[in-house]
Amino acid sequence: MQERVRRERQQAVREMHDGGMTYRQIAKELDISFGRVRQILSEDTTPAAE
Fold first, then answer.
1. Dihedral sign, Cα of residue 31, residue 1, residue 14, residue 48
2. Which site from 13, 22, 41, 42 is most exposed, i.e. has the minimal number of CB atoms within 10 Å?
3. Within a 10 A sphere around the Cβ of 13, how many other Cβ atoms?
4. Taking the CB of residue 37, how many other CB atoms lie within 10 A of it?
5. 31 φ/ψ angles, rounded to the nearest 5 degrees
């Protein structure tokens, strides 16, 4: 259950950023820290472990 919530939040962050929102705007909208937004978005650019 927690994994699903985490994936949904990550997707929301990505969609908001792709839509032009800043990290700070996303953080405020989702009530999470600026650092967490940055962490989520940086995870997208990290190559998957093989």
1. positive
2. 42
3. 25
4. 23
5. 55, 50
5 token code pair:
């919530």
Half-sphere exposure of residue 15, counting CA atoms within 13 Å on the CB side? 8
Helix (H) / strand (E) containing 2: helix 2-18
pTM: 0.78
Q: What is the pLDDT along the chain (50 residues), one digit of tens a residue?
A: 789 988 999 999 999 999 999 999 999 999 999 999 999 999 866 555 54
SS3 of 22, please?
A: coil
- Six token digits for residue 48: 């998957």
